[in-house]
Every structure is written in C-alpha cells, then in structure tokens.
Amino acid sequence: MDESRRAAKDWVAGYLRAWKSNDPTEIGALFAEKAEYRFDAFTDPVVGREAIVAEWLRRQDAADSWTFEHDVVATEGDLVIVEGVTRYADGRVYSNLWLIRLAADKTATSFTEWWMDHANPS
C-alpha cells in the first residue's frame, strides 16, 4: 500500500473514531487550523478548526445510532475520495461520497460530504 493510500485510510479511521466519540479533541485533530468543511456539498463551508468542531457537535450522531461501510476508492496527490454507506438504527440509509484534501501533516484542509438519501432517490 502506498503512503498516500495509507494516510487516507488512517485519516478515515480517525474520522470514524471521532464520529463515535464526539470528542472535541479527536474531531479537532482531524482538521488543519484553517480547514473548510462542507457538511452538505452545495452549502458554504464551515471554516476553521474550532468552528468545525462546534458544528460537528451541534449535528452529532449518538455513537450507537449508525454503522458506516466504506472504501477509499482513490487518492491523487492531496485528494482522497471515499465511497460509503451509512445506516442508522431508525432505518435511514445514505450513500456517501467524501472528497478530502490532506495536508503534509495528514490533517484535512478540505472536506466535502455528498450524501444521498435512499428514501428519496433522484
């Protein structure tokens, strides 16, 4: 496995730990100081590590309320593409596509989440 793919898998593993724990330190460790996070692909980004942590916590999912299956489908330079499926205990199911840009220190400078609700196909 090449270094960029390993870095991508490690970052996603950290994201999943933070998603389960909702621990501000774990969340913050994922992102560069001036990172941009788009919780919805067509919205303005949340900018800055502190703002990202605050918005994440505002939107947090309970640790036992979801499962996530995924694959790192591509890495190219600083770009990581992840395809996944999120299943919630209440029956909601979403297909996910994440576009992540990683800095040399392995923190994300940009994260855009595309999600598609299986109950409302286009």
Write the layout of secondary structure elements.
Layout: H1 3-21, H2 24-29, E1 31-38, E2 46-47, H3 49-59, E3 66-76, E4 79-88, E5 93-102, E6 108-117
Parallel strand pairs: 1-6
Antiparallel strand pairs: 1-2, 3-4, 4-5, 5-6
Tell me what the structure shows.
This protein is of the alpha+beta class. It has a single domain (3-117), classed as Nuclear Transport Factor 2, Chain: A, CATH 3.10.450. The chain is built from three helices and six strands; from the N terminus they run H-H-E-E-H-E-E-E-E. The radius of gyration is 14 Å and the shape is globular. The mean pLDDT is 96.
Q: Figure out the total of helices.
A: 3
Instruction: Write the CATH architecture name.
Output: Roll
- In terms of DSSP E residues, the strand content is 35-45%
N-to-C SSE string, H for helix and E for strand: HHEEHEEEE
> Kindly, what is the distance between the CA atoms of the first and last residues, rounded to a whole number of angstroms?
36 Å
**How many distinct beta strands?**
6
Q: Please state the structural category.
A: alpha+beta
The parts where pLDDT drops under 50 for at least 5 residues are none
Helix-residue proportion: 25-40%
Assigned CATH class: Alpha Beta
Keywords:
alpha+beta, globular, single chain, Nuclear Transport Factor 2, Chain: A, 122 residues, six-stranded mixed sheet, 30% helix
Put the structure in a nutshell.
The chain has 122 residues and is an alpha+beta fold. The chain has helices spanning 3-21, 24-29, 49-59; strands at residues 31-38, 46-47, 66-76, 79-88, 93-102, 108-117.
